[in-house]
Write a structure and sequence with these properties.
Number of helices of chain A: 5
CATH architecture of chain A: 3-Layer(aba) Sandwich
Radius of gyration of chain B: 24 Å
Largest interface: A-B, 30 and 36 residues
Strand content of chain A: 15-25%
Number of strands of chain A: 5
Radius of gyration of chain A: 17 Å
Helix content of chain A: 25-40%
Strand content of chain B: over 45%
CATH class of chain B: Mainly Beta
Strand order of the largest sheet of chain B: 1-3-4-5-6-7-8-11-12-13-14-15-16-17-18-20
Distance between the termini of chain B: 47 Å
Strand order of the largest sheet of chain A: 3-2-4-1-5
Structural class of chain B: mainly beta
Oligomer: heterodimer
CATH topology of chain A: D-Maltodextrin-Binding Protein, domain 2
CATH superfamily of chain B: Porin
Number of domains of chain B: 1
CATH class of chain A: Alpha Beta
Largest sheet of chain B: 16 strands, antiparallel, barrel
Largest sheet of chain A: 5 strands, mixed
Shape of chain A: globular
Number of helices of chain B: 5
Number of strands of chain B: 20
């Protein structure tokens, strides 16, 4: 009985615990760090450049993927539905379209490693020296 | 054979840069997308019709009307080069002649001169409200439709012209300056007869200024235009007034002040919205001044919404005040003048959109790309006012109306 209760308690705890995210840029990018607000501005299309200048090309993860939902919830304070509605508003206002979507964290990492203007986000565990972390989202 | 190979090789070599581009966001690129609304509106009266603005020929009464909000729109975005884009939007909804044939809502080219400055030209949205660009995109809005109390004070949605969009990020603050000019020729229906008349909005000049900081967006705008709108019946009234001018003091001046040829309209608006996490607050105010029979108005609304996951209940209060006279005492309703006086009085009495509205609604985003909405508008009309309603019958002015709306919005 105790074991069962502990098991239920652990299961309940396990649900909200998620992996940390890291916002990544190309190693050649001079930016050492960015605030969540600055990252959100780039991903929402409100800013097209990095804080220190230089064009920024945001790369998104696929709709419906946990890492993407978590990114927008924590960095832009928008749930997946709000993000969709936000982009519907922007697109049908002729004010731009959402960031290009890539298929996986590996694809995002590869694209960021290859493009000095790129910015993406991946699970902390998948960061390596081919890219540079500018913001860790707990 | 060899030449054919060479040609293929040359074609591949020429295509290679494009293919390389295809990997980092393909140019030229085409994107087709769309949005729509399936809605129904009913009221508790048959004495007048509820429509989103005077550009709709009819509206909802006691029996449900699907034509007030329903629409289907398709948009094509073409990115020709890094700096040059084209946007075309076709919309099928209830038009002035009660016809749902798709019309071009937008068709413009946008050229980015620098990263901060763009020029746009073609058929563009008139940028006078926070929701000007997205007033038809139900999915992007909390209400079934943006509050008509304010939005119907400037009902025409697009114009032929050009603008400059200057956008500058200064730290966490983003400033947008948007001067524009052009002209518009919307068809205006006559709800009583079903006929339509083209209105001419010439020499449109305006500016839109917006600032964004964090979850706040604030904006202000000014528009002016030279307006011309004449129907046989109004032309007859003004001719009648000028005819009696030698006998009736003030009749000539009254004709000049009511006549609607090359008359100035100005529209000044301010607005603010706060959208963060679970809280949505938005309020706008607009003041319209018209140098002819159209009423001068002041209108505002405030909306507060709270998100519970994908469900957002919201409440809106809105108010329209009529700032110009809706009666006249120049032409007395006596003897041979009676028909003319009656005509003028009817024209003026019909220019009283004053109303107070409390609206309660809920938006449930039940799918990633679709929502369903319910809304109840409780509209109180001051004495003599017919509000935003069309085709008001005698006795309707000053009454209280309940408007019930339901809609499903989607994007694709």
């Amino acid at each position: 009985m105790d074991k069962l209760l502990i098991g239920i308690a652990l299961a309940a705890l396990a649900i909200p615990v998620r992996a940390e995210l890291v916002v990544i840029v190309n190693p050649k990018n001079p930016a050492a760090s960015m605030s969540a607000e600055q990252v959100a501005q780039v991903f929402l299309g409100r800013s097209t450049s990095f804080p220190g200048g230089g064009a920024a090309t945001p790369l998104d993860q696929k709709e419906g993927v946990a890492v993407r939902d978590e990114f927008y919830t924590k960095v832009a304070d928008k749930n997946p539905g709000q993000v969709k509605a936000y982009w519907a508003k922007q697109m049908f206002s002729g004010n731009g379209s959402p960031p290009r979507e890539l298929g996986s964290s590996a694809d995002v990492k590869r694209a960021v490693a290859a493009d000095p203007s790129a910015i993406g986000y991946v699970e902390k565990g998948s960061v390596d020296s081919s890219v540079k972390g500018v913001l860790t989202v707990p | 054979m060899l030449t054919k190979r060479k040609a293929i090789a040359a074609a591949i070599a020429m295509a290679a840069p494009w293919m390389a581009h295809a990997e980092d966001g393909a140019m030229p690129s085409f994107r087709f997308s769309g949005f729509g609304t399936l809605g129904a509106v009913a009221t508790n009266t048959d004495q007048a019709e509820y429509a989103t603005s005077v550009l709709q020929p009819k509206g909802a009464k006691k029996s449900a009307d699907p034509g007030v909000d329903s629409l289907l729109a398709g948009q094509v975005d073409v990115r020709a080069t890094k700096d040059l884009t084209f946007v075309g939007q076709l919309v099928a909804n209830r038009t002035a002649d009660d016809n749902y044939t798709p019309h071009v809502e937008w068709a413009f080219g946008r050229y980015a001169i620098t990263r901060e400055l763009a020029v746009r030209a073609g058929i563009l949205a008139v940028p006078v409200f926070l929701q000007s660009d997205s007033r038809l995109v139900g999915f992007a809005n909390p209400w079934v439709r943006p509050p008509t109390s304010l939005y119907s004070q400037a009902p025409f949605t697009d114009y032929d012209g050009a603008d400059l969009v200057y956008r500058r990020n200064m730290g966490d603050f983003a400033l947008t300056l948007q001067p524009y000019f052009g002209r518009a020729t919307p068809e205006v229906p006559n709800a009583a007869t079903g006929a339509t008349t083209k209105a001419h909005l010439d020499d449109i000049v305006g500016i839109n200024v917006a600032g964004e900081i964090g979850a706040w967006t604030v904006r202000a705008g000014y528009l002016q235009t030279k307006f011309t709108y004449r129907t046989d019946s109004t032309a007859q009234l003004f001719a009648g007034l000028r005819q009696i001018a030698p006998l009736v003091p003030g009749a000539g001046d009254l004709a000049d002040s009511l006549d609607s040829v090359d008359k100035k309209i100005t529209f000044t608006t301010v607005g603010a919205s706060y959208d963060s996490g679970n809280v949505l607050f938005q309020a706008e105010y607009g003041k319209r001044k018209a140098d002819f029979f159209l009423a001068d108005t002041s209108a505002w609304y405030a909306t507060l919404g709270y998100r519970f996951g994908n469900v957002m209940p919201h409440v809106t209060y809105s108010k329209v005040t009529t700032d110009s006279p809706t009666t006249q005492s120049v032409v007395p309703p006596v003897g041979q003048l009676a028909p003319l006086a009656a005509g003028i009085n009817t024209l003026l009495a019909g220019q009283n959109p004053a109303q107070n509205t409390v609206a309660l609604g809920v938006r449930w985003q039940f799918a990633r790309n679709a929502d369903v909405k319910l809304q109840w508008d409780h509209v109180s009309l001051p004495a003599g006012a017919t509000g935003n309603f069309l085709n008001a019958q005698p006795g309707f002015a000053g009454s209280t109306v309940n408007v019930y709306s339901a809609a499903v919005d989607f994007v694709f």
